[in-house]
Specification:
Elements: E1 2-8, E2 11-16, E3 28-37, H1 41-45, E4 55-56, E5 61-68, E6 80-83, E7 86-87, H2 93-96, E8 107-108, E9 121-124, H3 127-130, E10 132-134, H4 142-149, H5 154-164, E11 172-176, H6 180-191, E12 196-200, H7 204-213, E13 217-219, H8 223-233, E14 239-244, H9 249-257, E15 259-267, H10 280-285, E16 289-292, H11 297-310, E17 321-324, H12 328-336, E18 343-346
Parallel strand pairs: 11-12, 11-14, 12-13, 14-15, 15-16, 17-18
Antiparallel strand pairs: 1-2, 1-4, 3-5, 3-9, 3-18, 5-6, 6-10, 7-8
Length: about 350
């Protein structure tokens, strides 16, 4: 089959690789219909996250089950399924507590020895615990497939961030970051009933999506100017709930400084850079809570799926460039150069 591999910084290839097969009784093989490129994939692309030459890549996909192992009970051949970005057994203590990203037997797509989502097919470990069934008729609806694909990562991650920030009816939410996850956090905050949502971003195409998703205000400034702008919008107090969806020292510092006393920050930006931007003394004095981390999207899919199927939640506008599998390297280049927000891959 064909699959995307990474060989060095900026060296992405689509190559022939062995077809995936059921290796263990709990495995399933899924033929990929839709995949995408994540902003976090760019750290490997730029050489800021180590990869072995020829390693697979991609962690967001949905598709059709082609084969199952003898111990797979809830997933059947022909099922349309979505895969969260981490596989998990569904039965360990962490999975039972809803923290599938800490599963004792879990792992990330594209890790050494595993398939990546940006290919024609994937071997899925622990298929019963990992995969979520979707209505088969959705396979013929391109728009719905794109919306459902966001359940694999960005929609659930935005939801995780909004929950960590304490988004709820009546509060003001501020979102630092105008990437796909930040935009999905806007959508999640709206779904959770936030009264006011302030999106921090400088790219009009992206902030237009933020407004479409429910943002009531946009702040284009950065650094101290952004802090002043948010405080001007909130009677000098800051936002009750702040999402940090970038992962840099500056973005975390901004998040802390725009949080209202007694408020909370939900952080989901993959940390990178020289420091954390955290001043624990300030957070202590102002009673600011910090929650977040790797989003256990498998726990959120059952809650979010009905709204996606009904069209009440639609994150598909984050996809602004579509490529076939052979065009994935060009998709990485477009996202790296910020000419694309998020790339959808069709098979």
């Amino acid at each position: 089959m064909r699959a995307t591999t990474i060989h060095a910084p900026y060296d992405m290839r689509v190559e022939d690789v062995p077809d995936p097969v059921v290796r263990r009784p709990a495995d399933a093989v899924v033929r990929v219909l839709r995949a995408c490129v994540c902003g976090s994939d760019l750290w490997a692309y730029r050489g800021e996250s180590a990869r072995q030459p020829g390693q697979r890549i991609g962690h967001e996909f949905l598709g059709v089950v082609e084969e199952t192992g003898s111990e797979v009970n809830t997933i059947r051949r022909g099922d349309l399924v979505v895969a969260p970005f981490v596989w998990s057994d569904g039965v360990c203590d962490y999975c039972r507590e809803g923290l599938h990203t800490s599963c004792e037997h879990g792992g990330f797509w594209g890790s050494v020895g595993s398939d990546g989502g940006q290919g024609e097919a994937v071997c899925v470990p622990f298929a019963d615990g990992t995969l979520v069934q979707l209505p088969k008729e959705a396979a013929s609806d391109d728009h719905l497939l794109a919306s459902l694909l966001t359940l694999s990562d960005v929609l659930g991650t935005g939801h995780h961030a909004a929950l960590g920030a304490g988004a709820r009816p009546g509060v003001t939410v501020a979102v630092v970051g105008d990437g796909a996850v930040g935009l999905c956090a806007v959508l999640a905050a709206k779904r959770l009933g936030a009264e006011r949502i302030i999106a921090l971003g400088r790219h009009q195409g992206r902030t237009d999506i933020a407004r479409r998703f429910g943002a009531t205000d946009v702040v284009a400034e950065r650094g101290e100017a952004a802090v002043e702008a948010v405080r001007a919008l909130t009677r000098g107090q800051g936002a009750h709930s702040v999402v940090e969806a970038v992962g840099t020292e500056q973005s975390m510092s901004t998040a802390v400084n725009i949080t209202r006393d007694g408020g909370a920050i939900g952080f989901v930006g993959v940390p990178h850079g020289s420091g954390t931007g955290l001043d624990l003394g300030v957070m202590f004095d102002r009673n600011i809570a910090l929650r977040g981390g790797v989003a256990p999207v498998r726990a959120y899919i059952p809650e979010l799926l009905p709204d996606v199927l009904a069209g009440r939640v639609d994150a598909s506008p984050v996809f602004d460039l579509t490529v076939g599998l052979e065009g994935v390297p060009d998709g990485y280049k477009a996202m790296d150069e910020r000419t694309a927000l998020k790339v959808l891959v069709t098979n």
